[in-house]
Amino acid sequence: MIGHRRPNSTRAAVLVPFAIVTLIWGSTWIVIRDQLGTVPPSWSVTYRFLVAGVVLQAVAMARREVVTRDAGFWRFAATLGLLQFVLNFNFVYRAEQHITSGLVAVTFALLLVPNALFARLFLGQRLGRQLLAGSAVAMAGVALLFVQEARSDPNGPGQSLLGIGLTLCAILSASCANVMQATRAAARYPMVPTLAAAMLIGAGLDAAWAWITTGPPVFDLRPSYIAGVLYLGVVASSLAFTLYFRIIRAIGPAKAAYNSVIVPVIAMLLSTLFEGYRWSPLAAAGGVLAGIGLVVALSARRPAR
Predict the structure, then answer these.
(1) Fewer C-beta neighbours within 10 Å, C or N terminus of the chain?
(2) Confidence at residue 304, expressed as pLDDT on a 0 to 100 scale
(3) Are 182 and 66 in contact (CB under 8 A)?
(4) What is the value of pTM for the model shown?
């Protein structure tokens, strides 16, 4: 019976890609850290989305996906490329030059807030009590994680404020791009070729900005750097963004943003395995609360329009 159907956000079609994206993006913070050094951040961002765009374009061609590339398509792809693949990532990569990757990841968990607000303002999605309750619990966990990471950050207060400010700018850019995926305009165009165009446009804008601000292209021939570019381009961008934007279309931007709440917990778990990170009682409590909030929120029904 209809009344006994499971909520959209607890079905395997949503939970499986949600888990995949969370695990992938939980690992990217360590990889991004290795990208900062010889190569200016804007060039690293350029290489990442050039690889991602080429891969998705090849997938679209192999699947023979047809898309009407009218003026509306190019406006949508260019706007998405600017917000998601230029502003968002340039802010994130620069933030990691001033604060630890853990603090950037935890701060980015605040994506839940603008996603929920913008979904209410621009999409008319009402947030139910269960979703609000889950959000409150999750944000309490994020607050504990933030305090823990801020305490352990070796940079001075000036550097920390600058890094957090850059991360907040990235959050706003990403949130606008997230909400775009839940609009009727997004539904008019196939996901893969649209994302390919947005990433290639973004890579072009990234390259222009990098050349203007830092000079001609710079590349690092270290195997770890090359592997990082390929991982970030193919897995963390081509695959992860395709899955994530489909999640947004299925359950809305607010609930999809819970990905960013769990990502720092995954990042800390991976840091425990590979970097010797030690969990304090504060961090452990924050991780538990974030997980409880996720379960409560995702078990709520899809926001009403």
Answers:
(1) N
(2) 42
(3) no
(4) 0.83
